[in-house]
Amino acid sequence: MARFIPEPYRIKMVENVKMTTREEREEALKRAHYNMFRLRSEDVYVDFTTDSGTNAMSDQQWSAMMLGDEAYAGGRSYFKLIQAAEDIFQYEYFQPVHQGRAAEKVLFGAFLKPGKFALANLFFDTTRAHVELAGARCLEACNPQAADTQLRAPFKGNMDIERLEAVILEKGPENVGMVVMTITNNSAGGQPVSLQNMRETAKVCRKYNIHLNIDAARYAENAMFVKLREPECKDWSIKRIIREFFTLADTFTMSAKKDAIVNMGGLIGVKDANAPYIDRIKANCISFEGFLTYGGLNGRDLAALAVGLYEGMDEDWLRYRLGTMEYFGSRLDELGVPYQSPPGGHGIFLDAAKFYPQIPYTEYPAQVLAVELYREAGTRTSEIGSYMLGNDPDTGAQMRSMNEFTRLAIPRRVYTQSHYDMVIDSIAQVWKHREPMKRGYRITWEPPILRHFQASLEPITE
Ligand SMILES: *Cc1c(COP(=O)(O)O)cnc(C)c1O
Question: Which fold has domain 22-51+316-459?
Fold first, then answer.
């Protein structure tokens, strides 16, 4: 079994949480219409819904916030952030925005419109939504290894280069508005992308003159995987790996709520300061987010982000971070519980299709598992499967996800080993009692886009 790597930090402030009874949780589920996003945080003991914006900031970040410059224009905190971003990513233009989806909204329209396609190693939910909101359509070319959760391969998040090129030729290179490389590949289970694969993807993009954007939420976890698994990079610093990755793309969109360890923030990066679309980014940002030097954030948020970009790529931190996932995964291995293995960088993705092979994707087996985990011990998780994927924007038919995952996304610097052990024990219980589950859930109401956040569900009873 993997050893639990001790935390490279200690606790200075705590947040008390409420313990609930099974009866209280049952009532809470009904009130939430079985939608995890509609539960109250108060009714949750361990919250693994997401690692986005749920991180604990450091004393360095909190003290940087006190120095935040709240000037409308040209604030000191803005320049601190730009300095950090330039140092790490070596791009020529950066635009702070309030979160990742804002980066997508501000940037994507420059490349996508009706009739165009965006191609990715897999889109995450909001990224998919912003491609569709721009009128374009999503196509994917993910490493087929990602579909087999029991296959331990080092870079299951990779782009399938052959498929990428085949799809470009099928749709016509002039119709592919951009290629998106998601690092790490969230929908595939937080699986990393290799530097070699990034190079090959960039080569294809150059060959057909297609814009390459990195969806960069987990830039640091991905770099650590590359260091550990790609022999060429084993002696490289994390910063060098990040730079090597980013120099291969034209732009990045980043949710800073993940690896940059802040509670709110996002960033757009553009490699070439003379890129014609920078004017459009600026115009969109000023209209939708705010003036260029704050981008919808407080000055203090920019200050915390400037510190967080570095803390997120600290090697001791990343060793602990990936080590936590290894520990979690190896305990599940002992129990025989199926998950996307090896574990990804930001969480454990339980293979709900293997928990409940009797429940079809149209009844959302990963939602069934999410509800059971909450019932059992008050753990909140999220469904990353057909329920999240939603309906085809053209036909309205339920789409089928490559995997039916129940994601335990681990917030950064928030929980301790005993929380993980408690959750693992509860997973063991749910695994043991999986067979009597015969039916899943039906949606009784859903909005047209990003339905999983708001929809109402009910259990299907024959
Ligand atoms: C979280 C995330 C986004 C969206 O970012 P928000 O900050 O939640 O708006 C986009 N892409 C990926 C891969 C993400 O994980």
Answer: Aspartate Aminotransferase, domain 1 (3.90.1150)
